[in-house]
Fold this protein.
Amino acid sequence: MNHSIVARVVTALGLFIASVLILTSKPALAAYPDRTIHIVVPYPAGGSTDVAARILGENLSKQLGVAVVIDNRPGASGFLGSGFVARSAGDGYTLLFAGSGIASAPSIKEANFDLRKDLTPISKIVSSQFSILVNPKLPVNNLKEFLTYVKAQPGKFFMACSGAMTAAHFALEHFRQAAGLDFTVVQYTGNAPAQTAMLSGEPPAGIDAAFSAKESVKAGLLRALAVTGAKRSALLPDVPTVAEAGVPGYEDGFSLVMLAPSATPKPIVETISKAVMAAVRDKTVMDKLDAQGYEPVGNTPEEYGAQLSAEIDQNAKVIESLRAAGVIK
């Protein structure tokens, strides 16, 4: 066979193979999603995070045209389910829906994944805030009186929170540092047991989500001294912020966020992020989230990435101080 003919055949074959590869790879990405998406919630079913995930998942299913399944994988303060997603395929079909406590992972030895390397931000979905609460039998009527009361008995006062290394725990430790207080944090296994303890007066104070606390506050069973956000909560409009009430510069809260395995292609990350942003701006979704005490956010991967980096740094400082004090190992 003539060498020029062979060369033309080889060239043509090479072009054909290249075109096949292009045609088979691009539609696969463009077709996303074409099967069920699993959103992993690393907490038990029925909790506030699970409820919000189901509200969002229902809308995402309508937008993306595929089933969205909520997969609860609780354990190890949320690190069990988070680690599962971190080790999953980066194809956009396994996503993580977690609380902002995920930002503590780089500083916690028990976390079996590297948050910075193994997961990529998609969006901060909603935000909310905590409230500083006391049993009405405690002889304080506002935050300034509370600060004076606690400072008068250093190391002898106790405050409740919903669990170790949770967003509530970090907000309470942050409050302790900002206010210059010396108290012991009593860690429970969730919001309900922590609030039950405060209702009984043992311990006589603590921190809880404004949404979880509002009914007890309205009934006079607990007194809200302040909320932890940058502005007052619509759930407790008469309650000042911590900064307003006596600790200038303090601001904290929690959010629900979405991340994906780090190998997830950028176009897929952007597709999911845009769907999330559209979901939290949907009136039906917004009304449901508002009823749960959440304020919709829905930002870009870049915006959430910057916020996550700042949260990691802030949590690292709190954890370092807890280790130095011998509170944690």
Summary: Residues 19 and 25 are 10 Å apart (CA to CA). Residues 3-29 have pLDDT under 50 and may be disordered. The two ends are 76 Å apart (CA to CA).
